[in-house]
């Protein structure tokens, strides 16, 4: 005798094929991934906040760091990043339109919307690469002191930033870059800066119009400008010339700023890049009619979730890196 | 999704006829918010940078709140959380929010403490 009483309702609950949260297996797994990825990004941004609060008085001001727009000269803080944000939101829109067209089984619409999404993603990654390049190349150049602090230069009359090339003088000397081929052993040194420390110091002494700006942020929320006397005193602390930014030296100020910039935008850019690649794969699947034959476009919906997530993360990166 | 989309945003204040229309409406709203952020970021109104709330400039609070608003509409309308079951939505949203608030609280308080150690300690960092 069978001790279990089976009712019709129970068979349908335990019989398989149920979706407990009303979402399919694939979508649920995508959400699992997105939540864990969101926590990873939160960890990075929280670490950024930690370092920033730790050095709250000397942290670089993003408006003064990201001031360039491709093909234009001049000082345009934030404009290009705002453009990038808009591009990413726009590609999110075409993605959600593709998902919508997929629900209606409109194959051609899905193809075109996905194509637009891929283009938007590519523009974003390209912009990100350009931004990295500009950041690495640097802007005005600066000096680094023994304690690792950055000294930047400002023109006293106009208040504008002064580049090293504006005032450094050329002193002929014997210092040449050591190359791999000249050594007894196979090592080479880093590329020499365009001016030596001595040239910058002598140039500074010769030009009374140049002042030093320290990392310290004053009460008006601007970097502290030293007067000529204090500048000359401060100059004695300098140990090397810094041009551009890398993981060790950063002419814009705190090196941690550069480290986090490379790490967080790099990790995000990698997400966008993977998103573009996956989008391309699914784009071809749509063209080949894979989902048409399958009877539904859920795959487009899943990559759509990922793509919106990347957009979502960028919204936060934009705020915490460029605005706040 | 077999079931239909919920086609209203702002708690029913704005209603759309189709999902496509809603998407464009949300885009307009997100663009508008981004524009506000950028303009505020360029102008930096003194009244907002001078006043502090909970140790942070009011302007920064505005940026963070606007960001959360944007995040809400991206998640709710682009990622269709609005159309999911409340149980799924809550599991997805509240888990990270809880953990992030916890982490941020701990890290920022700790960072502020270290800042004070650097500042008041007898070691010079600026040389």
Describe the structure.
The complex is a heterodimer of chains A (324) and B (127). Chain A is an alpha+beta fold. Chain A is 57% helix and 8% strand. Chain A has helices at 8-14, 25-54, 62-65, 79-103, 107-137, 164-167, 197-206, 228-235, 255-288, 290-294, 298-323, and strands spanning 142-145, 150-155, 210-217, 223-225, 238-242. A five-stranded antiparallel β-sheet of chain A has the order 4-3-2-1-5, with helices on one face. In chain A, β3 (210-217) and β4 form a beta hairpin. In chain A, α4 runs antiparallel to α11. Chain B is mainly α. Chain B folds into two domains: 1-84; 85-127. Chain B has helices at 19-43, 46-50, 58-78, 86-120, and strands at residues 8-9, 14-15, 52-53, 56-57. In chain B, the strands form two sheets. In chain B, strands 1-2 form a two-stranded antiparallel sheet. In chain B, strands 3-4 form a two-stranded antiparallel sheet. In chain B, β3 (52-53) and β4 form a beta hairpin. Chain B is elongated. Chains A and B meet through α2, α4 and α11 of A and α1, α3 and α4 of B.
Total count of domains of chain A: 2
Largest β-sheet summary of chain B: 2 strands, antiparallel
N→C terminal distance of chain B: 63 Å
> Which class best fits the helix and strand makeup of chain A?
alpha+beta
Question: What CATH architecture of the largest domain in chain A would you give?
Answer: Up-down Bundle
Structural category of chain B is mainly alpha
| N-C termini distance of chain A | 72 Å
Low-confidence stretches of chain B: none
The name CATH uses for the topology of the largest domain in chain A is Four Helix Bundle (Hemerythrin (Met), subunit A)
Mean pLDDT of chain B: 87
Strand order in the largest sheet of chain A: 4-3-2-1-5
Are there runs of chain A of 5+ residues with pLDDT below 50, and where?
Answer: none
């Amino acid at each position: 005798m069978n001790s279990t009483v089976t009712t019709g309702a129970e068979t349908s609950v335990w019989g398989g094929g149920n979706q407990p949260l009303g979402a399919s297996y694939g979508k649920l797994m995508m959400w699992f991934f997105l939540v864990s990825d969101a926590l990873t990004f939160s960890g990075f941004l929280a670490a950024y906040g930690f370092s920033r609060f730790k050095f709250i008085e000397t942290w670089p001001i993003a408006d003064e760091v990201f001031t360039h727009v491709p093909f234009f000269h001049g000082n345009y803080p934030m404009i290009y990043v705002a453009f990038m944000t808009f591009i990413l939101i726009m590609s999110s829109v075409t993605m959600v339109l593709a998902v919508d067209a997929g629900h209606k089984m409109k194959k051609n619409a899905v193809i075109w919307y996905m194509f637009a999404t891929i283009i938007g993603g590519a523009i974003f990654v390209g912009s990100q690469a350009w931004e990295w390049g500009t950041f690495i190349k640097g802007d005005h150049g600066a000096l680094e002191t023994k304690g690792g602090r950055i000294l930047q230069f400002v023109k006293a009359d106009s208040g504008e930033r002064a580049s090293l090339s504006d005032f450094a003088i050329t002193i002929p000397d014997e210092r040449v870059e050591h190359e791999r081929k000249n050594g007894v052993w196979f090592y080479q040194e880093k590329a020499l800066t365009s001016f030596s420390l001595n040239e910058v110091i002598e140039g500074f002494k010769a030009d009374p119009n140049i002042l030093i700006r320290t990392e310290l942020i004053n009460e008006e929320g601007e970097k502290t400008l030293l007067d000529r006397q204090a500048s000359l005193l401060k100059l004695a602390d300098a140990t090397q010339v810094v041009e551009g930014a890398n993981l060790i030296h950063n002419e814009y100020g705190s090196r941690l700023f550069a480290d986090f910039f490379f790490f967080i935008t790099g990790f995000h850019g990698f997400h966008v890049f993977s998103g573009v690649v996956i989008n391309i794969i699914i784009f071809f699947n749509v063209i080949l009619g894979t989902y048409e034959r399958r009877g539904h476009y859920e795959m487009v919906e899943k990559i759509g979730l990922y793509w919106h997530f990347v957009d979502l993360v960028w919204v936060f990166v934009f705020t915490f890196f460029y605005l706040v | 999704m077999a079931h239909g989309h919920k086609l209203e945003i702002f708690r029913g204040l704005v209603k759309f006829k189709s999902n496509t229309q809603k998407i464009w409406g949300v885009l307009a709203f997100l663009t508008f918010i981004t524009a506000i952020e950028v303009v505020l970021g360029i102008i930096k109104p003194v009244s907002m940078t001078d006043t502090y709330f909970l140790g942070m400039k009011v302007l920064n609070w505005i940026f963070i709140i606007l960001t959360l608003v944007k995040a809400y509409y991206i998640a709710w309308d682009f990622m269709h959380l609005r159309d999911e079951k409340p149980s799924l939505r809550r599991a997805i949203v509240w888990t990270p929010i809880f953990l992030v608030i916890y982490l941020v609280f701990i890290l920022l308080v700790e960072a502020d403490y270290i800042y004070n150690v650097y500042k008041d300690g007898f070691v010079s960092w600026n040389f």
